Structure formats: C-alpha cells, structure tokens
Amino acid sequence: MQELTTLNHCKTCELIARRDAGLAPLWDNILRTPYWDVVHSYNTSLPGWLVLVARRHIEAIDELTEEEAVELGQLVRRVSIALREVTGCVKTYVMQFAEQAEHPHVHFHIVPRMADQPEDRRGGQVFGYLGVAEEERVPEETLTALAAQIQSILLTGP
User: Fold this and answer.
1) What pTM does this model have?
2) What's the sign of the alpha-carbon dihedral 102, 138, 97, 73?
C-alpha cells in the first residue's frame, strides 16, 4: 500500500500517464523506449536541459533492472551526442537525485554545458537554471523546435 500512496503523489508518474494517453506536447515526449522517456525540462531557463525518466516508478538506482541500466547507458551517450549537435555544447552534465517531494521517481538530468556558460552556472551550480519563474523559462516554441531536432537525431542515430 505504501508504493500505491507514493505513486498517487508522484508528479513524474502523472507526466508519464499523460504521455501514455497521447496528451503530451513534443518537448515532453521526445523519445519513448521500452524503459525510458526522453523529455525536455519544463521549468528551466537553459535550452536543451533534457531528462531521462524511468518508465516505471522506482525511487533508487539500485532498483533498475539490468535491461533498464543497459538502455540508460546507451541513452546517456545518444542524448549527449544529440545535445552537442543541436546546442553546440562542449560537454553534458549527467545528474540524478530524485529527492524532490513531487519527483521521488528516478530520472537523470542530461544538461548541456555551453562554452560561454558563466562560471557561477557550472558544475552543481547549473541547477540555478532549474525551477525558475515562468517568465524566465524557455518559451514553448523553442522547446518544441529543440525537441523536433533532438528527436530527429535520436530516431536516425545508432
């Protein structure tokens, strides 16, 4: 019963259900694999801030199956390649915490680190781009355009 209670309060599970129902915009439905969803963050001011979301509700990395872990590794690489091509980033950051009350669900942030990124937004300080006010967020048109480019690369790449 504890797991059911958690699922009922998991914003990530709600977003997966929206994708399952075919109601998600392109930027929140870039690629769906058997075990992972690739989406653009909805509350960031940094274009290209992607998230790999486990398709089933788990709250710790050690709960991944072997198949989920293998697919995750492949996606981290593929998404990083796509981000470099689309954003021109010099590298990507990969982070996983699943600590926020609304998002206890395992998900990985794949974040472009731009060449001109300010020092105070590098490393862990990159989270200054996340959870920003509505008016600072990447506009929906930009999210959709980025998603289309990234999706095209992911669908045609290895």
Assistant:
1) 0.92
2) positive
